[in-house]
């Protein structure tokens, strides 16, 4: 009975592997959580042909909003709920690294996640995942099944209610967000967060790790550029923001490194105090592009 179960599982896995590699439609990709989405992004960068990428962005969900379609040969390795150090650790695992690395500094005080990195840099699963798409996070059958069920429910709802397929909603004026009660609640949370400075022992450890990975990548030939994602103006001058800026300026002098500060000419409202809306993300992307010749 056990042998039969094992053989059946192997046959089903082999069939699914062939289907994903040869016959699956382009939309056959889905994730069910932030962790899965982060792992999928990292896996696609590590296992696919990323050696030709010249520019890479590492950071948080703030930098994830940067629109790379308008940037030359650029890959965005920014993780929701994580920070730039996680991306730097992944880059250090590669033999060939991108020529230019753009590092978002906003949340480096959090430090890297050892668990997250271990899930990616698993030596046992490296070659199986590299060769078999079916083993990657965004091709898991349950995630795909969830996507199919969701699309089918939407289709049935439209049939039952006899309504045409819902068109994309017109773009909302994002400036209205900063007058809404919900926005102010989110902003209040961020103000409190930005006012707290972690313990010195934690900062010392995290900043040492951050500097180690930056210097390591630089020794491998990478050009390092630091940038600060714009946030709501009420957060810019708070203790934590100042702390991180001072750390960067002290350890990575402007005579050797490029630092791209947020534009003074644009007052970003954001959707929740820290994340840019679509229109603002485009504005910032164009600004970032104008400040770096490598992104032209």
Write up this protein.
Helix 3 packs parallel to helix 8. Strands 2-1-3-4-5 form a 5-stranded parallel beta sheet. It has a single domain, classed as SGNH hydrolase (Rossmann fold), CATH 3.40.50. The protein has 296 residues and is α/β, with parallel strands linked by helices. It is built from 11 helices and 5 strands.
Give the gist of this structure.
By secondary structure, this protein is α/β, with parallel strands linked by helices.
**CATH superfamily (homologous) name:** SGNH hydrolase
Which CATH class is shown? Alpha Beta
Sum up the overall morphology in one term.
globular
Briefly note the structural class of the backbone. alpha/beta
Helix count from the secondary structure assignment: 11
Task: Using the CA coordinates, give the radius of gyration.
Answer: 22 Å
Could you give the order of strands across the largest sheet? 2-1-3-4-5
Characteristics:
296 residues; alpha/beta; 5-stranded parallel sheet; 11 helices
Topology:
Blueprint: H1 2-23, H2 34-47, E1 55-59, E2 74-78, H3 84-93, E3 100-104, H4 114-120, H5 126-131, H6 141-160, H7 181-194, H8 200-219, E4 223-227, H9 233-236, H10 239-251, E5 258-260, H11 278-291
